[in-house]
């Protein structure tokens, strides 16, 4: 089985193809990541947070915030019934119609 870092570099079309020029690192769950503060413009975590307990999600959010440049972006996805059930009525309707919901994290802003 290929690792997720190998998958992102695959020549196949689709989602993997758009990430061929990025920098990828498989890490242990412990922080810190091997990058200085304010290093990246964008950090993305596809289907990572779905597999983490909330305390580990908090650690990953804090570490992502540390390595992001001011004004940088964090793109993450969560999947599953629990994630959709946590949405308010407006969010559930958006998910139903658009199949995508965008939320700003209060935790990344220190809230």
The number of distinct β-strands equals: 2
Helix content: 25-40%
Radius of gyration: 15 Å
What would the average pLDDT be, to the nearest integer? 75
Structural class: alpha+beta
The outline comes out as: globular
Write out the strand line-up for the largest beta sheet, numbering strands in chain order: 1-2
Give the count of structural domains: 2
Task: Please give the count of helices.
Answer: 4
- Give, in order, the helices and strands: HEHEHH
**How far apart are the first and last residues' alpha carbons, in Å?**
40 Å
Largest sheet: 2 strands, parallel
Low-confidence stretches: 13-18
Beta-strand content bin? 5-15%
Describe the structure.
The chain is of the alpha+beta class and 111 residues long. The protein folds into 2 domains: 1-30, no CATH class; 36-111, no CATH class. The protein is built from 4 helices and 2 strands, in the order H-E-H-E-H-H. The protein has helices at 4-8, 54-67, 81-85, 89-98, and strands spanning 40-45, 68-76. Strand 1 (40-45), helix 2 (54-67) and strand 2 (68-76) form a beta-alpha-beta unit. The longest helix has 14 residues, at 54-67. The termini are far apart. 4% of the residues are buried. Mean pLDDT is 75; it is low at 13-18.
